[in-house]
Write a structure and sequence with these properties.
about 375 residues, alpha+beta, Naphthalene 1,2-dioxygenase Alpha Subunit, Chain A, domain 1, Rieske Iron-sulfur Protein, seven-stranded antiparallel sheet, binds FE2/S2 (inorganic) cluster, binds fe (ii) ion
């Protein structure tokens, strides 16, 4: 639950911008060298330093809703297996058998406490322990203790399963999130209903992320999807280390002027986007619905896959609730897949033409600036 006073203060900042035709800004226009968008060496350096070494929001707690559930999914080139054991503890493993390396569990979500390899039926439990070797007396190894699944560091906070993709690396999630953790907890993501999930191919990760971090393009690119609900080019910006909260104003913001301040339900007049560094965005676009985007860089600097998850505050039961949730789901798919990503692909395709040495990030695009500074900081 969001703090009412804080939401009121955010609404006041948004109202001031609305009246003045302004937005939060930073000091200067930033110039980003074009190489950072296509150079394979730069890509490899940032990928290894950030995506393979820092904590990432990899899954949602609701994807592992109870003890004895699992989720198998390839992310960032790694076959991953998430489990929730009998005690409710979440684990993250490489989804690879320790005998001769077959993929262990097929992609998907479900209930299982035993994972049996499709090749020779070695079997693991949800804590990763090797609990069965077919024909053990013929195989010839007694000590199988060390042959559990390879575990990756993992922790659960604020309804999100965090992990790092390099075995043995330290995952200090509390330090990484800092005061953003309390902010994320206000979203109560672990109590939402998972309505739908899809994968969308997109442009390179830097172009894609830039698009999630500004409201400058909204009215132009999203005239019939987002623009009817929120105001373009009006951003109230707060940072938490590398993470950010982007507050946009809903079209009904002006109504607050007619209501005494202590009666404001300010959250109904705002749209909050929580941008978790480096690649996860939690966007409460409309009341009761939420879009979570995980942007996964591909093998090269020019492609990504986005996991788009549609959540509803509660399971839609009535016809109206079902229609509203379905409409939200389709809107999110259209706004990103049909409106945003084709522009991103065109940027990516035009880069080799050499028209620009730098990309210009405006003073009003301050969340992109903050993000790109964090990328520099953590990749050096
Ligand atoms: S590769 Fe898995 S049991 Fe042989
Ligand atoms: Fe957009």
């Amino acid at each position: 639950m969001q703090d009412k006073d804080e939401m009121r203060a955010l609404a006041k900042r948004a109202l001031a911008h609305m009246d003045a035709g302004t937005t939060d800004q930073c000091e200067d226009v930033m110039r980003l060298p074009i190489e950072t968008y296509i150079d394979p060496d730069y890509f490899r350096k940032t990928y290894d330093a950030i995506f393979l070494a820092k904590p990432l929001g990899l899954a949602l707690s609701v994807e592992l809703p109870e003890p004895g559930t699992y989720l198998a999914r390839k992310m960032l080139g790694k076959p991953l297996l998430f489990t929730r054991d009998k005690e409710g503890q979440v684990h993250l493993f490489l989804n690879v058998c320790r005998h001769r390396g077959a993929g262990l569990c097929e992609e998907g979500r479900g209930k299982a406490t035993r994972f049996s390899c499709p090749y020779h039926a070695w079997t693991y439990d949800s804590t990763g322990r090797l609990v069965g070797i077919y024909g053990k007396n013929t195989f010839g190894m007694d000590d199988t203790e060390s042959l559990g699944l390879v575990e990756l560091p993992c922790a659960e906070r604020a309804g999100i399963v965090w992990g790092a993709l390099t075995p043995g690396i330290e995952l200090n999630i509390d330090a990484w999130l800092g005061d953003f953790q309390a902010e994320l907890e206000t979203l109560e993501l672990d109590s939402w209903y998972l309505y739908d999930q899809r994968k969308l191919p997109g442009p390179g990760w830097r172009v894609t992320m830039d698009g999630y971090l500004e409201a400058y393009h909204h009215d132009n690119v999203h005239p019939d999807t987002l623009s009817p609900h929120t105001m373009g080019n009006l951003l109230v910006h707060d940072t938490y280390g590398p993470h950010q909260r982007l507050t946009m104003a809903r079209r009904n913001l002006a109504e607050l002027k007619e209501i005494p301040e202590d009666e404001w339900n300010a959250i109904e007049h705002l749209r909050l986007i929580h941008s978790i560094f480096p690649n996860m965005s939690v966007s409460a676009i409309l009341g009761g619905h939420c879009l979570i985007s995980q942007i996964l860089p591909g093998d090269t600097p020019d492609s990504t896959v986005t996991i788009q998850t549609i959540m509803a505050a509660k399971k839609p039961e009535t016809v109206e609730e079902k229609e509203a949730t379905q409409a939200f789901s389709e809107m999110a798919k259209f706004a990103v897949g049909v409106e945003d990503y084709p522009i991103g692909n065109s940027i990516q395709e035009c880069i080799p033409a050499g028209a620009n040495d730098v990309f210009l990030i405006g003073r009003n695009e301050l969340a992109i600036q903050h993000y790109q500074k964090a990328v520099e900081k953590y990749s050096n």
